[in-house]
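Assess this one:

_____
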Amino acid sequence: MKISIITVVMNAEATIADAIESVAAQNYADVEHIIIDGQSSDNTLGIIERYRDQIAHLVSEPDDGLYHAMNKGIALATGNVVGILNADDVYQDTTVLKQVAEAHADGMLDVVYANLVYVKSGDLGQVVRNWESCDYREGLSFDGWMPPHPTMFLKKHVYDKVGVFDTSLKYQSDLEFCTRLFEVHKAKSLYIPKLWVRMRLGGVTNNSLLTILKGNMESYQAMKKHGLRRNPLIFFLVKFSSRLKQYF
């Protein structure tokens, strides 16, 4: 079973080496690492070139944002299973992709996912927020729920059925995609109650209060499109409360 890992990057010279080394260190052999660079202006590309023999595909060109870049990576992927690891993130240990392959050995599954922790940008060991997921149940996405995106590994053919990321959404396209995946297409999923990813704070979707507010408005509109019948105040309160507990 080949696993394709897509890393989208733009000016991440401080972290991209950690992400590449995290994939390269996996004790699972059949891995295709695809890097989509938005034509970085810092030394990101120079660092990537040092690892060129460990990277299956490198694309560096202007794009229309994070989700457009992810879609380009998905189009290039030739693996049976596809995962996305951000340029600021690392896998928890060297066994993560082996665990993914073992879970997907069940040919009936569309997606597997696990847990994630947010860490300080300068210290991967300092946990700030603990994103512990759960088994999916019908309607859960309408509470603003989604699995931690970097822990999600989908069969490649699922993208053919469900579609890719909606590039008209700039902050919450991953939530809209998960709602489509779980609520509309009823994907067969498996939650693995283990820590798979460490994510640095400060990414595109959580780097300011304004970004978070814009993201929440996007998520509400996306949920309405897929059948949400709740008023916005209740939706935001439920979504906020579900995330608040992750800090304790």
Q: What stands out?
A: Helices lie at 16-24, 44-49, 66-76, 96-104, 156-162, 173-184, 209-225, 232-244. The mean pLDDT is 91. The beta strands are 3-9, 31-37, 57-60, 81-84, 89-91, 111-120, 123-131, 153-155, 189-200.
